[in-house]
Amino acid sequence: MLKPPDWHMLIVWYFFLGGIAGGAYFTAAIADNFGGQRDREVVRIGYILSTLLIGLCGILLILDLGVPTRFLNMLGVFKFWDPMSIGAWMLGIFGLFAFVSSALSLAGRESMAGFRRVWSLIGTITGFFLASYTGVLLSNSAQPFWSDARLMGALFLASGASTGMAAISLLLNLSGESAGEGFKKVKRADRFAMIFELLVLALFLAFLGSAAAPITTGHMAPLFWVGLVIAGLIVPLVMDVAGAGMVPAVVPALLVLVGGFIMRYVIVMANA
């Protein structure tokens, strides 16, 4: 009988914040390369948010390992056969991309704008990797349920996109930028991200079949169906499409973020 990994809330938060960081960086990079002057606040917030969250992810990973030197040892030698080594290195590489993008966006020097845009497009690859890697890591384990979930990486990536956009729209709203064109673009993009996440989630469950029982019919089922599917995806999507102006914009953004956290919680704790 396989012994479940000794994972707890630090890992759930690590998976959650890493997904937001990847999604926020992607959103900022797209706005930077294909947007205009009205999207500058989206660019700045997205880059800075991803940088701060990557820093938090590093702290969470170190705390989970228990001994800070273990994290440094993983960075000291790259082991392509070790998933933890790959994850630690990618965390550091993405952190470098996010930090440089943030610094360049704050500097505001137009002479560096071209370099920043190219840099951010390349950095998006590392952001995508970080957002989906944790799901791939789980699905390649020998644990029941995880090992059958071959679309988990895609699900984590879709959730990273929707939560990253939700986090940016929330910060734009709190900073008084909700009337700007950039906010409206992010809200529209997040609408499509939520639809995509719902489709990926449906395929995820369809491919799992009866193997999805730990989250769909077990003790995690109420949290999965009510917390993630209904409150975390369907309700904010309906609010966004049909309830424009009827509810504060922060409500659907918060619901998406809560749903993204619940998704990672039920998946990780299904084998706890």
Shape: globular
The computed structural class is: mainly alpha
The CATH class name reads Mainly Alpha
In the CATH hierarchy, what is the superfamily?
Formate dehydrogenase/DMSO reductase domain
Along the chain, the helix and strand elements come as: HHHHHHHHHH
Q: How many distinct folded domains? A: 1
Average residue pLDDT: 86
| First-residue to last-residue Cα separation | 14 Å
* Percentage of residues assigned to helices: over 70%
How much strand content do the residues show?
under 5%
Report Rg. 18 Å
The second-level CATH architecture is Up-down Bundle
Q: Can you summarize the main beta sheet?
A: none
Instruction: Give me the CATH fold name.
Output: Formate dehydrogenase/DMSO reductase fold
DSSP E strands, number: 0
Number of helices: 10
Low-pLDDT residue intervals, each spanning 5 or more residues: none
What does this structure look like?
With 272 residues, the protein is mainly α. The protein has one domain (9-269): Formate dehydrogenase/DMSO reductase domain (Formate dehydrogenase/DMSO reductase fold, Up-down Bundle), CATH 1.20.1630.10. Helix content is 77%, strand content 0%. It is built from ten helices and no strands. It has helices at 9-34, 40-65, 68-76, 83-107, 113-139, 152-174, 181-208, 213-216, 221-242, 250-269. The longest helix has 28 residues, at 181-208. 45% of the residues are buried. The model has no long low-confidence stretch (mean pLDDT 86).
Give a quick rundown of the structure.
With 272 residues, the chain is mainly α. The protein has helices at 9-34, 40-65, 68-76, 83-107, 113-139, 152-174, 181-208, 213-216, 221-242, 250-269. α1 (9-34) crosses α10 (250-269) and α6 (152-174) runs antiparallel to α7.
